[in-house]
Amino acid sequence: MQITASLVNELRTKTGVGMMQCKKALTETDGDLDKAIDLLRKQGAAVAAKRADKDAKEGRVFLVEAESRAVAFELSCETEPVSKNEDFNDLANLATKVLSSQEITSIEGLLEASADGVKVSDRLQDVLVKIQENISFRKLASMKRSSNEVFGIYSHMMGKIGVITKLAFVGTPSSEADLKQVAKEISMQAAAFAPVAVKASDVPAETIEKEREIARAQIENAAKESGKATKPEFVERQLDGRVAKVLKEIVLEDQEFFIADKNPKKLNVKDYLESVAPTLGLSSLKVVELIRFERGN
């Protein structure tokens, strides 16, 4: 079959791939447009595999809120210009549309889902072929809320960091907007100070053990330098004190609330929320869940 310029142009329009690559695909498939598209998609998968060893630490974190659900996902790429590319953002918009209308909790589920007749994995392959860079959905996490819970949504530096917090409250809020603002501020806190958990009991045991090992080494080194031995019971007290100090830095509800003019008493997040609850018409307000994604991590 003759490969006409119009057929090549049609394939180029459908895929966004260069003219020569389109012509080659059509030649290999005897001018069958659908088979040529499939071939280019397969080549896109090959591109992804070939570049899988390339660092894809650029990209953006996207946040989606839809009724009683909220989702965060990271779409990664190798270079910053690609994260601003129209095709990259069209792919992110398709994913956002899917997540807004469907209850999806994994990257695998997202890739298999469709919106407006377009499958996310197919669009991803099209973008891979066109851009020739390692692009992937790197992370995805979601949460649900009940009627007495509110989401705080915050995106920092155009998607470099994305945070979703969930606050639980008791009572009827006097202002939904004010309550949402407080929730957003808690997400801003998490973006700035990178907590690993909402409360101390949620901190992974291996994290605490690692901090104890570091503190023990510091105490032992200090003892060697001073030439004075430290009694075992004193070492344990020091370990407990140092780990407790670290937990105040990495546990969200134990961190000092960061907006100074709203927190003159320098309360931690837990106590600050309890202090503002009455001003919102509530008897209780607390953080119960956290998602924090940072691009490339």
Please give a handful of descriptors for the protein shown.
297 residues, alpha+beta, Helicase, Ruva Protein, domain 3, Tetrahydropterin Synthase, Chain A, 3-stranded antiparallel beta sheet, 8 strands
Could you characterize what this model shows?
The chain has 297 residues and is α+β, with helices and mostly antiparallel strands. Among the domains are: 46 residues, Ubiquitin-associated (UBA) domain (Helicase, Ruva Protein, domain 3, Orthogonal Bundle); 91 residues, 2-Layer Sandwich (Tetrahydropterin Synthase, Chain A); 47 residues. The protein has eleven helices and eight strands. The chain has a three-stranded antiparallel beta sheet. Strands 6-7-8 form a three-stranded antiparallel beta sheet. Strand 6 and strand 7 form a beta hairpin. It is flat and about 85 Å long. The model has no long low-confidence stretch (mean pLDDT 93).
Short description, anyone?
With 297 residues, this protein is an alpha+beta fold. Helices cover 48% and strands 21% of the residues.
Within CATH, the superfamily of the domain at 54-144 carries the name: Elongation factor Ts, dimerisation domain
Structural class: alpha+beta
Per DSSP, the total helix count is 11
- Which CATH architecture of the domain at 54-144 would you pick? 2-Layer Sandwich
